[in-house]
Amino acid sequence: MADKIVVSGMRFYGYHGALPEENKIGQRFLVDVWLSADLYSAGTSDSLDQTINYAEIYRLVRNIVEGPSFKLIEAVAERIAQVLLHAFPRADACRVKVVKPDPPIAGHYDSVSVEIERRRSAAYIGLGSNVGDRALFLKQALEKMDATKNITVIRCSSIYETDPYGPVQQSDFLNMAVRIETLLPPKALLEEIQRIEAELQRKRKVHWGPRTIDLDILLYNQDNIDMEKLSVPHPEIARRAFVLKPLFEIAPHLVVPGINRSVTDLWQGLDQKEGVRLWKPNNGEGKFGLFVN
């Protein structure tokens, strides 16, 4: 069971709501917050700098609830979770409950409330390009990911030149893999990387065809995800050398959920390793350790 810091029953007066009178007159709001964090060091050292400051939690929540209005308490809760996770890197996850004790709706009830949980997640993204200035497209995709709210690029593999996969005749690809940290849930993360693909003129005219940039969510924590437009782990992760080779470089001991085999095991057991050649090593120079002559 994860350690938690809980600040409950916080009371504020704010102006959130979909009705004009809610924005003008305002009303009471109650907020509970749970932050999951490893508190062993705080407990054994009795040191304030090893924990999360409760007064700072209260101040940040108060600034949001008593600040500019939102139409929905869902948006209030989302904002609280994002701000607290950004403010306290020690926290792994945040659960927020926002209560409206006196909503302007008819009926007999105690209150209405919203409760959400957000966590700091690790995801691995595969990148590929075989149109135009391939390295430039990879660089721009990395920069756009790192500049996206709630996404931080943590580690990049080297760049590999790879033979095209599938039946379509086309130019060789440049491929790489990156580890990111994100506060976005999987569907929202997919929407953001698809936005980046669109900004870099990704066209989806031919299946397995040429592309300026291809961004795939390979892994998201240890989650198995099966949505209409998203399957994680990536369904082809165990069969594609151009995915496994850069992933092996940055996360060799990572266990792929569902398959329950490490990346090293999958790479070493792959029959077809040909067609993947080191194009530019990550030597630690530049922002991402790449793209520097």
UniProtKB/TrEMBL annotation:
Signal peptide: none annotated. The gene is folA. This is Bifunctional folate synthesis protein. Keywords: ATP-binding, Folate biosynthesis, Kinase, Lyase, Nucleotide-binding, Transferase. Pfam families: FolB, HPPK. InterPro entries: Dihydroneopterin_aldolase, FolB_dom, GTP-CH-I_C/QueF, Hppk, Hppk_sf. GO terms for biological process: folic acid biosynthetic process; tetrahydrofolate biosynthetic process. It catalyses: 7,8-dihydroneopterin = 6-hydroxymethyl-7,8-dihydropterin + glycolaldehyde; 6-hydroxymethyl-7,8-dihydropterin + ATP = (7,8-dihydropterin-6-yl)methyl diphosphate + AMP + H(+). Residues 207-218 form the 7,8-dihydro-6-hydroxymethylpterin-pyrophosphokinase domain. Belongs to the DHNA family. In the N-terminal section; belongs to the DHNA family. Gene3D superfamilies: 3.30.1130.10, 7,8-Dihydro-6-hydroxymethylpterin-pyrophosphokinase HPPK. Pathway: Cofactor biosynthesis; tetrahydrofolate biosynthesis; 2-amino-4-hydroxy-6-hydroxymethyl-7,8-dihydropteridine diphosphate from 7,8-dihydroneopterin triphosphate: step 3/4; Cofactor biosynthesis; tetrahydrofolate biosynthesis; 2-amino-4-hydroxy-6-hydroxymethyl-7,8-dihydropteridine diphosphate from 7,8-dihydroneopterin triphosphate: step 4/4. Catalyzes the conversion of 7,8-dihydroneopterin to 6-hydroxymethyl-7,8-dihydropterin. Its EC number is 4.1.2.25, 2.7.6.3. NCBIfam families: folB, folB_dom, folK. GO terms for molecular function: 2-amino-4-hydroxy-6-hydroxymethyldihydropteridine diphosphokinase activity; ATP binding; dihydroneopterin aldolase activity; kinase activity.
